[in-house]
Specification:
Largest sheet: 6 strands, mixed
Oligomer: single chain
Structural class: alpha+beta
Number of helices: 6
Radius of gyration: 30 Å
């Protein structure tokens, strides 16, 4: 006798359970709100303490406004606090001598935007330090600082905003601008500092002044006007010599032009 076998029924496959997909937000304001969250402090901010000695250049950073069309342009300038760059040596383990700039710069920016005109007007100034290494001696550091400050003294664009915007939007735009790397509100900024190019140019400058020193006593201008003209002529000649020296260095190093004062 045969045994009757009951056929097995195939069990239906279990449906794969998937996690619900997050809703897709196409609203621009939602994405903008995510970007406008408070960002961490810029990574370029110099640490208060370090295991090696550092140079710190004392500077003054100013913020400016100017109305261009219906937008207000916010710019910044950096200048030396003294006629000659004031650089201090911060020993290893010592704290940076930062100044307290405890001013609500966001509120100050809002007020400045609302009263901006077609004239360039300053609305905020803060004392800062530009921090760099001690690979070269102080004289080279000062020479580099003079060159760099000539560039930073020009107006650098920070951001622009519609003057008709609400207070919240203007403040949000200011927060985004001031949270970026190398923000003008970072009071201790890390810089690359002088390089071999600056040392070479400084040495050539010293050689020019050494050659000119013996002739300085022989120049006796007949009048203050003549003296001013002579000084201008000497400055032009020195500038021509510096340009010639730069060309020589470029040829010796294979061209490409000298590097900028700093990144």
């Amino acid at each position: 006798m045969g045994v009757e076998v009951t056929p097995r029924r195939e069990q239906p496959a279990e449906k794969e359970v998937r996690a619900p997909m997050p809703p897709i937000r196409f609203v621009a304001a939602a994405r903008q709100a995510e970007r406008e969250q408070d960002a961490p402090r810029p990574v370029s901010e110099a640490p208060l303490y370090a295991d090696e000695p550092r140079y710190a250049l004392k500077v003054s950073c100013s913020l400016w406004t100017k109305l261009v069309g219906d937008k207000v342009e916010i710019t910044s300038t950096v200048t030396s606090v003294t006629t000659r760059p004031d650089i201090v040596l911060v020993a290893a383990g010592e704290c940076l001598p930062l100044r307290d700039n405890s001013v609500d710069v966001i509120e100050a920016t809002y007020k400045a935007v609302k009263r901006a005109t077609t004239a360039t007007m300053g609305f905020h100034t803060r004392q800062q330090l530009l921090v760099f290494g001690t690979a070269y001696d102080m004289d080279v550091a000062v020479y580099w600082a003079e060159s760099m400050l000539r560039e930073l003294g020009r107006h650098q664009t920070v951001t622009s905003v519609q003057q008709s915007e609400s207070k919240s939007r203007i403040e949000e735009a200011a927060k985004r601008a001031y949270s970026r790397c190398q923000s003008p509100t970072v009071d201790g900024r890390t810089m690359l500092g002088p390089r071999e190019f600056h040392k070479t140019m400084f040495e050539k400058s010293c050689q020019r002044h050494a050659r000119a020193a013996p002739l300085a006593g022989l120049l006796r201008p007949a009048s203050p006007v003549a003296h001013a003209g002579t000084r201008q002529s000497d400055s032009d000649s020195e500038l021509d010599e510096m340009l010639d020296d730069e060309q020589e260095i470029m040829m010796e190093t294979g061209g490409g032009g000298p590097p900028p004062p700093d990144e």
